[in-house]
Amino acid sequence: MTNSIGEIEVSDLIFAIGTNTTENHPVIASCIKRAVRQRGTPLIVADPRNIDLVKYADLWLRHRPGTDVALLNGMMNVIIAEDLADNEYIETRTENFEALKAVIEKYTPEYVENICGVPADDIRKAARMYAGAGTSAILYTMGITQHTTGVDNVKSTANLAMLCGNVGVEGGGVNPLRGQNNVQGACDMGALPNVYTGYQQVANDEARAKFEKAWGVTLPAQPGLTIVDAMDAAHEGSLKALYVMGENPMLSDPDISHVEEALKRLDLLIVQDILPGETTKLAHVVLPAACFAEKEGTFSNTERRVQRVRKAVEAPGQARADWEIIAGISEKMGYPMQYTSAEDIMNEIRALTPSYAGIAYNRIDKTGLQWPCLSEDHPGTKFLHKDRFTRGLGLFSAIEYRPPAEEPDKDYPFVLTTGRVLYHYHTGTMSRLSKGMTERCPESLVEVNPVDAEKLGIVDGGSVRISSRRGSVTAKTLITDRVAPGVVFMNFHFREAAVNLVTNPVFDPVAKIPEYKVCAVRLEAA
C-alpha cells in the first residue's frame, strides 16, 4: 500500500475496485464501514458481483469481468473533458500526460458502456465523485491483478490517482491489499525471481556485488524463473528439482492437470509446510515446518509495517523454524550459514537493505515500523511519494483496453470468475481442519444467476457441471443475483471441486500472473 490502513478512515472518498474486502480483508473492511457510517465517507464499489460491500456504497459499477482498463479510462475521459484534473500536480509531479490524454480521448462514457456494461451516466457520476472529493483512496486486490492485463489494470489505477493528485498525500494513494499475512514481507525479502531484498535488482551490477561480498559467493546476473515458468520447465524436463515452501500449487495454480504432470516429471520435489496438502502427496521429501506461534521472526503486513512474531509454544515432533531447516540443508551442501537466531538474520537484512536499515528488534518490541525506515532514528514512513516519486516524476502510462484471453462463444457461453469466501483460507489446508469454519462453509458452491438457472433447468442446491476447454468440475448450485446473467462464480478452497482444473493457464506477459478471473465455460445440470 502506498498509504496506511488507518488513513482509510480520513479519506474524503474510497474507491474499491476488484476487491471483495469484507470476505478477503475483513479487518480493513471494518475501517471502510466505519468511515461510511461514522464520517459519511462516499464509497464507490466497482465489481462484477453484488458483494457485501455494495450495501455500503453510494455507487456500484457492475462492470463485466476483465474490463477494468476500459472502465478506468472512461472515468479519466470525463475528468479530462470536464477539466476536473489536478493540473498543477500533473505539471509539477508527473510526465507523459499528453500521451495518456491522446489515448483516453476515444474512451467516452458511451463507448465504454458498450465494453463494460456500466451505464454511461454512472461512469460520469463516478468520475465526478472521485475527482471532486478532495483526497480519494483507491483500494484493489486480485480482481485487478489476476488477468492477462493485470499490469495494465494496476497502471490504470495509478493513472487515475495521479490525474487527481491523489498520490503522496495522506488519505489517498493506490493501495493493493495483500492476500496473505506476510506476502508483503516475502516480496520484501527477495522471494521474487528478479530481485534481492528491498527490490534490489539481480541484474544490477552494484547491487549484486554488494550481496556477493556479504555472502562470499558469485551470484548469477540473470533473473530466475517465475512459478509459471518453473512449471513449464519441469514439464519440458529442463527443471529437475523444485523446493516448495508454504505453497500448494496442486490446488492454487491454474490448469492443475498440467501442474500435476509437471511435478511428477521432477527428479526431486521437496515440500516444506506445516500441514499436509495436495502437493505434499507428490513430494519425494516432506520437511515439517513450525507455524507462526512456534517461531521467532517478523511479518511485514499490507501497509509495509514490520512486526515482531514471538514463539509461544514449542513446535511438535521434528518440526523446525523455516530458517533453521534452510540453514541445515545449506550446511550439508557445504555452505555454513552462521546464524544463531532470527535476530541475527534481521541484522543482516538491515545491513543489506536500505529500506529496512532502521528496523531493529528493540524498536519493534511493541509496535511495528513501516518501511522505508532508513536509520535507527528514522520514524518510518506512513505514506509513500510525499514530495517526489521514487523515480522522480510520476509516469503516466497510455493504455489501450485489451479483452480477456478467452471470451464466451456458442460452445462455452458463460464467463467463470473465481475468488475466496470468508470462512476459508486459500487452499483450505488449515481452515478446513477447523470444525467451526467447516460447519459455516462445508463445500464449494457455484453461484448462478436465476435467469440462467431457469433456462438450463438448474435447481438451487442441485449439482451442476462446469466445463471449459481444459476440464470440468461438479459442485452444488447456489442460485443468486450476486452474479449477473452470463457470469458464474466459484471459490478455489475445495479439492473435491478443484476449480483450477477449469481455469485458463494464460498469464500477464510482464508479471506472469494467471488469469483466474475470466475464462469461458459451459454449464449443465449434473
Structure description:
The protein is an alpha/beta fold and 526 residues long. The protein has three domains: 5-177, 3-Layer(aba) Sandwich (Dimethylsulfoxide Reductase, domain 2), CATH 3.40.228.10; 183-370, Rossmann fold, CATH 3.40.50; 414-525, Barwin-like endoglucanases. Helices cover 31% and strands 17% of the residues. It contains 18 helices and 21 strands. It has helices at residues 21-24, 26-39, 68-81, 87-93, 97-104, 109-116, 120-132, 142-145, 150-163, 183-188, 205-215, 227-236, 249-252, 256-264, 322-332, 342-352, 435-440, 450-456; strands at residues 13-17, 43-46, 59-61, 94-95, 136-140, 174-176, 241-245, 268-273, 285-288, 297-300, 305-309, 369-370, 394-395, 414-419, 445-448, 463-467, 472-479, 487-491, 504-507, 514-515, 519-525. The two termini are 44 Å apart. The model has no long low-confidence stretch (mean pLDDT 93).
Task: Name the beta content range.
Answer: 15-25%
Task: Find the CATH topology of the largest domain.
Answer: Rossmann fold
The largest pleated sheet is described as: 6 strands, mixed, barrel
* CATH class label of the largest domain: Alpha Beta
- Count helical runs: 18
The proportion of residues forming helix, as a percent range, comes to 25-40%
Overall spatial form? globular
Structural class: alpha/beta
The N- and C-terminal alpha carbons lie at a distance of: 44 Å
Kindly report the spatial arrangement of strands forming the biggest sheet.
Answer: 14-18-15-17-16-21
Q: Would you tell me the overall average pLDDT?
A: 93
Index terms:
single chain; about 525 residues; alpha/beta; Dimethylsulfoxide Reductase, domain 2; Rossmann fold; Barwin-like endoglucanases; 3 domains; six-stranded mixed barrel; five-stranded parallel beta sheet; 18 helices; 21 strands; about 30% helix; globular
